[in-house]
Amino acid sequence: MVGGSADVGHGARVSTCPVDRPTVTLSCFGEVRDAMRAKDLRQALYDDGALVMADCLLDLHGSEHRDRRRLENRLFRRETFEDYETNLLPRAIAEAIDPMAVVGRGDLVQIGYRAVMHLTSLVAGIDVADGDADRLEHIVKVFSKGATAVHATGDRSDLFAEVGDALVEFDELFFQPSTARRQYALAGLANGTIPASEVSRDVLTTLLQNVDALDLPIEVIRREVAFYLQAGGHSTANALTHTLDELWSHGDADLLGRARLDPAILQRCVHEALRLHPASPVAWRRTLAPVEMRSGTVIAENTLVVLDIEAANRDESVWGAGSDRFDPNRDVPDGVHAWGLSFGAGPHACIGMELDGGVPADPGDSVHLHGTVALLASALLRAGAVPDPSEPPEIDPGTERLHYSRYPIVFEPLS
Ligand code: HEM
């Protein structure tokens, strides 16, 4: 990605990217977090993924971002997640795991995708008929590849053609029917024939209700809904595989045993695995004006700023010596999240963070949300899942990111 580079102090490196735009890489925790919060740095990672990402929440800036985020935030209340964890997630998890447990083997990546897609299709507002889940999952994986086209290693034109076909199929099979149902419900709500309690609460309905206020073309609504599906699917599968891989490869038997019995311990393992293996190892921003960093370094306008989340999450000045080690019991400094910057920070901080990562209880709290990833991992361990000794996991060759494309497991009787 980069040509020559030079240090400008305190973890920032200046270099030149292939389009000859000056590039600065930040890798210190404090500077990466400041950059995520800075108002003069705008999203730049998805310029090559515009087919699926143009004008999506993650790609908006300033007041446009604030207005859309404010609307969509209303769908991400803690009471909603509590309801999901209690009522929906157990069924979603069982539907993802049970068919594989019955035959004695399965794949972690597939299980992670399938379980979370149950939730994200609900959040996004995409209705999935029985028998169409495989198709939707395939389409969403193509969208994910399209969004991160900047990291793709294969032929770009083949990738874009595949993404174009997936968008057409998504539109016909899922988006148009889901939209028609919601438009019908909203018309009924307006003329008093349908009560508010029968209108879905999801991203698609919210955007259709605000088409005029936000001046939203239908293609943007389609991309936004598609983005929700792929943002959740890929990151959850990534977090699940890395959590269990860390536990199986580096965790001790005692930790594994305790994690199997207590989802709160597993939740700490999820946060620690997220710190070490962010779904997106880098974020990219572009400066809209000169930006002064805490070190005093000034980054010139129109510079590409690479936020090295993976390096920041292992910054020894925050995590101490041994920051590379998987240690779910480590002390986390005040003001820092156990998952580091893996859910982002500032205006674009992940909207699905509590859905996937849960909310650890403070002393006296009555509710402890464990999060989708911990509950999925817990159900797998309790079902006797272990890595398949005959088939090692495979790293995805289609991207420079360290992602598992397959993680075969078998189910063994628990001793
Ligand atoms: C372990 C799971 C997940 C991880 C690690 C993760 C990570 C992230 C990160 C790092 C960002 C910010 C990117 C940036 O600043 O450039 C982000 C944004 C976002 N994520 Fe997640 N995510 C996860 C799960 C989810 C889920 C389940 C959903 C949907 C239900 C979701 C929806 C979003 C959305 C809509 C944004 C954009 C927010 C904005 O721009 O205001 N994520 N996520």
Give the topology, please.
Elements: E1 5-7, E2 12-16, E3 22-26, H1 29-37, E4 41-43, H2 50-53, H3 62-73, H4 78-103, E5 105-107, H5 108-124, H6 133-147, H7 156-190, H8 203-209, H9 211-214, H10 218-249, H11 253-261, H12 263-276, E6 282-287, E7 291-292, E8 298-299, E9 304-308, H13 309-312, H14 316-319, H15 353-357, H16 372-382, E10 385-387, E11 394-395, E12 404-406, E13 408-411
Parallel strand pairs: 3-9
Antiparallel strand pairs: 1-2, 2-3, 4-6, 5-13, 6-9, 7-8, 10-13, 11-12
The structure holds protoporphyrin IX containing FE (HEM).
Oligomer classification = single chain
CATH class of the largest domain: Mainly Alpha
- CATH fold-level name of the largest domain: Cytochrome p450
Q: Provide a count of the helices.
A: 16
Measured on Cα atoms, how large is the radius of gyration?
21 Å
Helical residue percent band = 40-55%
Quick one: how many beta strands? 13
The N- to C-terminal Cα distance equals 49 Å
Give a written overview of the molecule.
By secondary structure, the protein is of the alpha+beta class. The chain has two domains: about 1-45 and about 280-345, 2-Layer Sandwich (Uridine Diphospho-n-acetylenolpyruvylglucosamine Reductase, domain 2), CATH 3.30.43; about 45-280 and about 350-410, Cytochrome p450. It is built from 16 helices and 13 strands. It is globular. The N and C termini lie far apart (about 50 Å). The model is unreliable at about 1-20 (pLDDT under 50). Bound molecules: protoporphyrin IX containing FE (HEM).
